[in-house]
């Protein structure tokens, strides 16, 4: 597990330890000793920013931190072992797909970076299967500012100055982040949300054939969302790009607390206009739900649900057994209300 003792990595290690022997890696192994002792894992150094080679005999690899040079991806492909990645934003996911096209993997490469480790895409695929197909998927995220979070959790702040491609009404077009602001009821919370670049907006049209895929995000304090929208109107996310303003951008949202809840709403419209809505709530927090998405990915690429994913690149929407997704989440303590 690369990044195996960070915020999400630690949550995933605790979920995975009862099922498999674990090797945790990162740039500072001393930080992972206590967790390794707790879950009975081995911990070793692997600094993805450096050129040092790394070798290990493993059944599968999962990445819970950024892999900017595709070192983990390439190592998994060379070793012929299944690989799950839950950390890539859309452009990096597209690059990983290109790398895998040039160096075709024999084992599954599951790029599961849609929100919460692929959970949004898994639930969307399950709802679409109930409807016999889908024409549109809309996702609304309530980001809890009081929750525990790793530094990578607000990486999306670095992309708020970059236009991105979406599919709407069967046509592709470029849009600006933080547009289309409005209010959505996410559970019992009336949440102000605006558009954000997430990988499922790229993969859902490819896999499910939907004509429209939209993801919006809002924060547990609507005032924080309003402030972010006001900052966007100044043009800061355009002229404030790059390393110089990175700390400033991330400090706007990175103030992790002691704990909160993950809360999502997924709306799916069928081809005949019928609808399904799922509200997903994890009181154990956003890191736990992301880790759970990673765990489901590991089980899938290892064939432990009875149907192994095929070799080559796959996305979460391609891998679930649709009827099992909601029950798998509920067994892990996640509340899923489908209407």
Topology, element by element:
Elements: H1 7-16, E1 23-26, H2 33-39, E2 42-45, E3 61-63, H3 71-79, E4 83-85, H4 90-102, E5 108-111, H5 119-131, E6 136-143, E7 164-168, E8 171-175, E9 182-186, E10 189-195, H6 200-208, E11 212-219, H7 222-233, H8 236-239, H9 246-251, E12 262-269, E13 275-282, H10 286-301, E14 312-314, H11 322-331, E15 335-338
Parallel strand pairs: 1-2, 3-4, 4-5, 5-14, 6-11
Antiparallel strand pairs: 6-12, 7-8, 9-10, 10-11, 12-13, 13-15
Helix pairs in contact: 1-10, 5-11
Structure in words:
The chain is an alpha/beta fold and 339 residues long. It has helices spanning 7-16, 33-39, 71-79, 90-102, 119-131, 200-208, 222-233, 236-239, 246-251, 286-301, 322-331; strands at 23-26, 42-45, 61-63, 83-85, 108-111, 136-143, 164-168, 171-175, 182-186, 189-195, 212-219, 262-269, 275-282, 312-314, 335-338. Helix content is 32%, strand content 23%. A seven-stranded mixed beta sheet has the order 9-10-11-6-12-13-15. A four-stranded parallel beta sheet has the order 3-4-5-14, with helices on both faces. The protein is built from eleven helices and 15 strands. The chain is globular and about 50 Å long. A hairpin with a 2-residue loop joins β7 (164-168) and β8.
Describe the sheet with the most strands: 7 strands, mixed
Order of helices and strands: HEHEEHEHEHEEEEEHEHHHEEHEHE
* Portion in strands: 15-25%
Give the strand line-up of the largest sheet. 9-10-11-6-12-13-15
Mean pLDDT, nearest integer?
90
Radius of gyration: 19 Å
How many strands?
Answer: 15
Distance between the termini: 36 Å
Mass-distribution shape: globular
Q: What proportion of the residues is helical, as a percent range?
A: 25-40%
| Backbone structural class | alpha/beta
Tally of helical segments: 11
Give unreliable regions as ranges: none
């Amino acid at each position: 597990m690369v990044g195996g003792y960070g915020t999400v990595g630690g949550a995933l290690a605790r979920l995975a330890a009862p099922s498999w022997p674990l090797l945790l890696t990162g740039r500072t192994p001393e930080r992972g000793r206590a967790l390794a002792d707790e879950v009975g894992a081995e911990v070793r150094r692997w600094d993805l920013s450096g050129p040092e080679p790394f070798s290990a005999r493993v059944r599968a690899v999962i990445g819970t931190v950024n892999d900017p040079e595709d070192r983990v991806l390439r190592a998994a492909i060379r070793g012929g072992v299944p690989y799950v990645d839950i950390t890539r934003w859309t452009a990096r996911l597209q690059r990983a797909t290109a790398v895998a096209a040039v160096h075709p993997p024999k084992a599954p490469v599951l790029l599961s970076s849609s929100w919460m480790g692929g959970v949004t895409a898994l639930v969307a695929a399950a709802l679409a299967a109930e409807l016999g197909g889908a024409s549109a998927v809309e996702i609304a995220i309530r980001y809890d500012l009081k929750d525990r979070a790793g530094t990578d959790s607000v990486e999306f702040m670095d992309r708020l100055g970059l236009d991105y491609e979406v599919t709407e009404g069967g046509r592709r077009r470029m849009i600006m982040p933080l547009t289309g602001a409005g209010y959505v009821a996410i559970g019992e919370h009336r949440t102000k949300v605006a558009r954000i670049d997430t990988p499922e907006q790229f993969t859902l049209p490819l896999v499910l054939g939907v004509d429209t895929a939209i993801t919006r995000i809002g924060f547990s304090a609507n005032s924080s969302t309003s402030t972010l929208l006001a900052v966007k109107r100044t043009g800061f996310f355009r002229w404030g790009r790059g390393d110089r303003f990175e700390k400033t951008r991330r400090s706007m949202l990175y103030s992790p607390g002691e704990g909160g809840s993950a809360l999502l709403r997924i709306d799916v419209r069928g081809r005949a206009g019928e609808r399904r809505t799922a509200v997903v709530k994890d009181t154990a927090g956003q890191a736990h739900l992301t880790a759970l998405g990673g765990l489901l990915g590991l089980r899938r690429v290892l064939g432990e649900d009875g149907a192994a994913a095929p070799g080559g690149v796959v996305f979460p929407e391609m891998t679930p057994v649709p009827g099992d997704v909601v029950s798998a989440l509920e067994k892990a303590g996640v509340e899923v209300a489908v209407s």
